[in-house]
Design goal:
Length: 696
């Protein structure tokens, strides 16, 4: 126990002798006696009782103790709280660490956690004296502070916190602590004895890796939990198209990940809209504390850029109920099929053409065209990015050189090794590409004499490869249905990657890169007498998937995370007549760098929604979403926080105005001493009444 007025103690101690002086004076006062016989008998009986003999000493003790309690009350006694000592007259240094992450926008109990944190911060600032210094640091992806140094302008900190907009990024506690360490390091005593208050919901993803060891020693850390009691949340965590390249007329499977971070199951509808017109609904059922994936087929329509939104019904955290993505759709793509088989024969080229576009009127997104190998030239390959080879004759040296150059410039090629001339053709390609560039080397051509006993099957593969995307999970067994009768015995060279292999270790599928292009070698044939591949239902889908996977052009990301910096190259003509518009409809100040006919553009993405270029139909768009790490609102076990601190740092869990006032003034005990004095006064009055009755 300590006192706020210890200087009065020397003056009050002599007053404790006052009851003793009164007691001694009362002993010399004359007593009046009534000479009646009855009164004399009563007095004699009272003197014989112990109460009469000890009454003066008991009254002396009660009065002395009562006076002592009153005198101690004037000294303003208190109990120190949370390591503070208000009796020591020193200026306080207070640093508010304000969580400004997305999870603080949750409104589980009415107001958001951010609004409750502002209220608690104002309660704390109200306990500061004018000479006390304070500052505020925002815990967000890029932490910032209210002042560059500590200030006594407490009102400005309040205005700074009230003016905060909703937080959208994740909170980086370690980076915020590093900023706090720099601020405290500028003080005279390097922050020793400073008070750091963390106002947060302590969302586990943000706080799991929090590091406090960089803070000055002997600082006191106070944790104020402003999160709601119910922290249920549902969120769209991710949405992406199933293919990297989308062509006009395609129906793209949109792979959507939804999280249910609640103790109750979630059953409702998910809505997908394209260009704010087309709406598609998908029923969802997600068990408690689970993440579910669903695929929604979306027709992408005409060429151009399409703005897609995935949304859930609103809950207490609305900002993560919507996910945006931009879908760039290309024109129909021409695909060359190079084959030397007779054109009037329904052979491998015919089956391959039908697999790439099975519609009679070519309504599909791919436009396959069959040409003989003698037509291969640089001029014919210009403008074509995807080429299939099947049933080839011998390639001329000039044709092999044109193919190698086109591959180097970014073309994607799929080569079916289904003919006796393939060994010479691959040697010619390798000579044009450079030695040691192909992933396999054919050794001998094998033809099965008995389809029942001589068929080869695929026994192993790299199913993480993007070229086997259709065979992941339970679909892997579909590869076991493929039987190959004619193939090349071959060995791997170590260049590139072998994706599939037969039982005799011959590569069945291999890939390599050359410059910007990709060459995929398939050691089997779609010919009916060489394999049963063309009869499999997976054949058309697999061939169409390979067209998209061998593309060298990396598509731009369909979605970004808030807090990132957008970067893109825009044609000068596109940027001359338009400017980027933020999701709030305001022009964006971007950093531009001229690169010939194109301009490199970059600017921070600090809002959720679409940043678009172009007034009506956007030519460029950045879809910005919150970090999925903010969706699970469950708090970290706060008892684990002290384990991440230094040895000399002290941690306390506080909350509310009473705790903040207790830090400033301690736990006051004055009322208890006054109450004790009143109780003693009542006891004295009761004791005197008892003495009179005994005397009567």
């Amino acid at each position: 126990m300590s006192f706020l007025n210890p200087a009065l103690l020397a003056a009050f101690v002599p007053l404790l002798a006052l009851p003793l002086v009164i007691h001694l004076l009362n002993r010399h006062f004359p007593h009046r006696f009534k000479f009646s016989a009855v009164e004399h008998i009563k007095e004699t009986m009272a003197r014989r009782s112990w109460l009469h003999r000890w009454r003066h000493l008991i009254l002396l003790a009660l009065r002395t103790l009562m006076l002592a309690l009153l005198l101690v009350a004037f000294l303003k006694p208190f109990l120190p709280k949370f390591g503070a000592n208000p009796a020591v007259k020193t200026e306080r240094v207070v640093l508010l660490m304000f969580d400004h992450s997305l999870s603080m926008e949750h409104k589980g109990d009415g107001p958001s956690a951010r609004e409750r944190a502002i209220h608690e911060a104002e309660n704390l600032l109200n306990t500061l004296k004018p000479e006390d210094s304070a500052n505020a640091v925002l815990i967000e992806q890029s932490p910032s502070s209210c002042f560059v140094d500590f200030s006594q302008n407490h009102a400005e900190i309040k205005r700074y916190l009230r003016a905060l907009k909703p937080g959208l990024t994740r909170g980086d506690v370690s980076q915020a602590n590093a900023l706090a360490a720099r601020l405290l390091g500028g003080l005279k005593n390097t922050g020793a004895g400073a008070e750091i208050y963390y106002l947060s919901d302590f969302q586990r993803k943000n706080w799991a890796s929090a590091d406090f060891t960089g803070l000055p020693p002997k600082t006191r850390l106070f944790f104020v939990d402003v999160g709601s009691r119910k922290r249920d949340n549902r969120a769209v965590l991710e949405a992406r198209p199933s293919q990297s390249q989308m062509l006009a007329g395609d129906t793209v499977a949109l792979e959507i990940t939804v999280g249910n971070f609640s103790e109750h199951p979630f059953q409702d509808r998910l809505t997908v809209t394209v260009d704010r017109k087309l709406g598609l609904d998908q029923d969802l059922f997600i068990p408690p504390w689970s993440v579910s994936k669903v695929a929604v087929p979306v027709p992408v329509g005409q060429p151009g850029l399409h703005l897609c939104e995935v949304s859930l019904p609103r809950d207490a955290l609305e900002l993560d109920d919507r996910h945006c993505l931009a879908l760039p759709v290309m024109e129909k793509e021409e695909v060359l099929i190079v084959s030397d088989e007779p054109p009037d024969r329904k052979g491998v080229a015919f089956f391959l053409k039908m697999a790439l576009n099975p519609y009679e009127d070519l309504r599909g997104s791919l436009l396959p065209k069959v040409i003989p190998s003698k037509e291969i030239s640089a001029s014919r390959l210009a403008g074509v990015k995807k080429i299939f080879f099947t049933n080839l004759g011998r390639l001329e040296e000039e044709a092999a050189g044109a193919l190698a150059k086109h591959l180097f410039q970014g073309a994607g090629m799929v080569y079916f090794m289904d003919g006796p001339a393939d060994r010479q053709n691959l040697e010619a390609l390798e000579a044009a590409m450079g030695p040691g560039t192909l992933p396999l080397r054919p050794t001998a051509w094998r033809e099965a004499t008995n389809a029942l006993t001589g068929a080869q099957q695929i026994v192993k593969g790299d199913f993480k490869s993007r070229y086997l995307k259709l065979f992941r999970g339970t679909a892997r067994q579909d590869l076991g249905l493929i039987e190959v009768y004619d193939y090349w015995q071959a060995r791997g060279t170590g260049a590139g990657n072998v994706i599939l292999a037969y039982g005799d270790e011959s590569p069945a599928m291999a890939v390599c890169g050359h410059g910007l292009g990709t060459l995929l070698l398939l050691n089997f044939s779609a010919r009916e007498t060489a394999s049963n591949l063309a009869r499999q239902r997976l054949f058309p889908a697999w061939m169409q998937e390979l067209v998209k996977m061998v593309g060298a052009d990396e598509p731009p990301p369909t979605a970004w995370t808030v807090g990132e910096v957008a970067q893109a190259e825009i044609w000068r003509s596109d940027l001359a007549n338009a400017e980027f518009i933020s999701p709030l409809g305001r022009p964006v100040t971007a950093k531009n760098e001229l690169r010939g006919e194109r301009i490199a553009v970059s600017f921070p993405l600090d809002q959720l929604g679409f940043y678009t270029l172009g007034p009506n139909r956007p030519t460029q768009a950045f879809a910005v979403n919150p970090s999925p790490d903010e969706a699970d609102l469950r708090p970290i076990d706060k008892e684990m926080l002290p384990t991440a601190m230094g040895d000399e740092q002290k941690a306390f869990f506080v909350g509310g105005r009473d705790d903040f006032e207790g830090l400033a003034k301690g736990e006051p005990l004055l009322h208890w001493f006054v109450l004790g004095a009143v109780v003693l006064l009542i006891l004295e009055s009761g004791f005197q009444l008892l003495v009179r009755r005994a005397k009567a």
